[in-house]
Each structure stands twice: as C-alpha cells, then as structure tokens.
Amino acid sequence: MDLNRMWSSNRPLKKSYDAVIIGGGVHGLATAYYLGKRGVRNVAVIEKRYIGSGASGRNTAIVRANYRTSEGIAFYAESVQLYEALSKELNYNVMFSQQGHLTLGHSDRSMNTLRERAETNRLMGVNSTLVGPEEIRRMVPPINIDHHTRTPILGALYHPPGGIIRHDAVVWGYARGADRMGIELHPFTTVTDIRVEAGAVSGVVTDRGEIQTRAVLNATAGYCSTIAKMVGVDLPIVSHPLQALVTEPMKPFISKVLVSSNLHVYISQSDRGEFVLGAEIDPYSCYSTRSTLPFLEGCAGHALEILPDLHKVRVLRQWAGVCDMTPDFSPIIGEVEEVKGFYVDVGWGTYGFKAGPVAGYRTAELIATGKVPDLIKPFALNRFHEDRLVGEKAAAAVSH
Q1: Other beta carbons less than 10 A from residue 242's beta carbon
Q2: Closest by alpha carbon to 346, among 261, 244, 233?
Q3: pLDDT at 400
C-alpha cells in the first residue's frame, strides 16, 4: 500500500501552529483528528520516524474494558464504544473483531481477584462475568483444563465486548482523517527542544526548523520522559521493553482472546490465522526493541500449557516495543501545572492501544476548550503528589 496516497507528505513546516503534537502514533493522531473535528486544524503532528512506527505498530492490538478501578473501567468503556463506531467514523475498515476476552485464573488468589473485577465491572455497566472450566472448554474446545497440570484452570473472567483490531488500520485511518481536514503530518522530523517563556510553552525546535506555538502535546509513549525534560518536568515513568511473537497461519483454531493471570501470557488468533502471543514486560529498563531467546522460550512454554496443540506451529517472527510504566499502572493525561500549554498523554504501559480513541477524544476536548473532562481528571500528574493513585496493577494479568 502506498501510504503517500492516503495522506500528504514532504510538506514544509510552517512558522506557527495552534498546536503541535509530538508523536505520530494512535494517541497523537487521534488527538489531531478530534481537534480537527472541533475546528482546530492549524495543527502539526511531529514524528521522528514513519507514522505509526512506535508502540502503535509494535503492540498486539487487544481491545477491552474489563479493568479494576471505577476510573479505569469508565475510561476504557468509552474507548471500546468509540472503537465500535470507528470504521464508520473514519470511513475506513479498522477490522475490529469483538470475539470475546477470557482472563484465566489458576489459583484461589487469582480467582478472588477476577471475582472482584467481575463485580466492579457489573456495577459500572460493563459486561464481564465469571465462568467455570466447562464453560471455558465450550467456548475454546482445544484448551487444556486438566486439573492434574501444574497450573490447572479454575475459571475465567469472560468479557464479551473484548477482542482484537488491526492496529495499522487504526493508525492509517486516523492519519488519513486528520490529513483530509488540513492537519499536517510531519514524519522523519525530530524535536530537539521546546521553548518555554514566563512559565508557558512558546515554541518547538526541530531538525527542520523552529515552530511557534502555545500548545504542545507529548504523546511519545516510552520516550515521553525525554520530551518532558525539555520543559523541566520529571515524569514518574520508567520505560521497559515488552516482547511479542507471531506464528505461521493456521485454520481457525480459537475464537477468543486468552490471557493467563498466573502464567503471564496472552494468545489470540488473527483474521489471517496467525497466533499472536505476548508475555510479561522485561524486568529491566531499556529502550531496545530487539527480541530475545529467553522470551521466546518462556512465552512458548506457557502458551503450550494452555493450548498444547500449538506444539508443532512455527514462529515467524518476534519483536519488542517500549512501554512507559507509571507507579500505579495508570496513565498521565492533562496539562502540566508547572508549564502552561504543555500537555501529556503518556504512561500507558501495556494499555495504550486500547485507549487510543478515548485519550485522543478527551485530550482534544481539553486543548480545544481549556476545560478538563471529568473522565480524565483522575489521571492528572499531580495525583502522585496528592496520594490519590489509581491502582490498575491487577487489571492486566500480564505485563504488570
């Protein structure tokens, strides 16, 4: 596909913009698109590589809303709703398959956690229920529920709205939509500094020239701390690699997304028949996007405990992305108090792609109106100074 036919490229940078978005992934592009829908179209999206080259092109594209906290559940539920209507909104097929999501429990402790999440989800109006081993086997016949295994499956949290999506299609759809409203996309452009005058953003310096602006959004995922330091802000974020792999295609084998809360592995089958597997974040801070043999061995071994019939399937490739982890495993969204006009949409860890539409929609609302939407108020940076954390560690099952 010639992406240059989908959006304009090689434009010169203008001297000034109403807003500059740093990061050409789903969050930056969604914010640009929804700013355009609100009539704010003198906007530049700056990306140091190609559009969608970061975490947006390196994730496993699972979408769900079955989180743990009331703040998180409401937030991701709106994102699922936006995803459900996104193909029509963008006039572009994003291939959202709501096939259902099963979080498996292998111990009494994990089942108690899943039971708590199911009840909280129900109270928040999100469709999630506990199911037993026999119901799991009915939904996923190849699954291994033998009680004599090392990690027997005792039950699962079943979330029917969950599923998978084509991450490239989401990125391309938002990019095309933003471009058609006159918003400029500038790939292969590096931000080297951000100007601050009298406590407010005044401009952005790039390797292609300097831009005047009063609003800058940092949507750079694992590299967000580097950008924030340009305005003298320290973010409580540590970046870790997260690895994944994909197998050769097979005939339809499973119709649900499978996640293990004890084995730290998740499995889905794409519309092309490939199995996509992921695991725990690497236990070290690093910006590397190279994958490793220990990950492959551990991930494959755990997957075979759940689906033994995968034992002869060949792995085609593996890769890594960079996750921006916060202390409470929830994002940081909003305007930074210390620097007027400097906005952040960061700290997503492994949740980022799930939240792309809602984060973009609500961040655009904030930038365009100057009013903080209720949905993102709990995720302000100052929560770490005010002891009001939003603890989502138990909601991931893997990677946290």
Answers
A1: 26
A2: 233
A3: 38
Distance CA(273)–CA(247), nearest Å, equals 9
The answer to whether the beta carbons of residues 224 and 346 sit under 8 Å apart is: yes
Domains located in the chain, CATH noted: 3-59+167-235+328-395 (3.50.50.60), 101-161+238-325 (3.30.9.10)
Task: Give the integer Cα–Cα distance in Å for 368 and 366.
Answer: 6
DSSP class of residue 105? Answer: E
**Can you tell me the distance from the alpha carbon of 300 to that of 294, in angstroms, rounded to the nearest whole number?**
10
**For 340, which DSSP code?**
B
* 265 SS3 class: strand
Residues paired with residue 184 on neighbouring β-strands, in sequence order:
44
Instruction: Report residue 190's pLDDT band, with 50, 70 and 90 as the boundaries.
Output: very high
Task: Give residue for tokens 């800058």.
Answer: 216
Neighbour tally for 128: CB within 10 Å: 25
What confidence score (pLDDT) does residue 174 get?
A: 98
Mean pLDDT of all residues in 390-395? 83
Euclidean distance between CA atoms 293 and 314, whole angstroms: 15
Residue % of the chain over a pLDDT of 90: 91
pLDDT at residue 399, rounded to an integer: 42
Alpha helices, DSSP H, located in the chain: 26-37, 70-84, 86-90, 108-123, 133-139, 167-180, 224-228, 293-306, 352-369, 383-386
Q: Which of 172, 168, 210 is nearest to 189 (CA)?
A: 210
pLDDT at 311: 94
Q: Which residue has the tokens 């994909």?
A: 246
Tokens of 214: 């009063």
198 alpha carbon, distance to own chain's centre: 34
For residue 341, CA distances in Å to 34, 196, 198, 217, 308 come to 18, 10, 12, 8, 53
Residue 393 has a pLDDT of 84
Instruction: Compute how many other C-beta atoms are within 10 angstroms of the C-beta atom of residue 192.
Output: 10
CA distance 253 to 269: 8
Which helix (H) or strand (E) segment is 246 a member of? strand 238-247
**Mean pLDDT over each residue of the chain, to the nearest integer:** 94
Task: Label residue 113 left, alpha or beta by phi (over 0 means left) and psi (-120 to 50 means alpha).
Answer: alpha
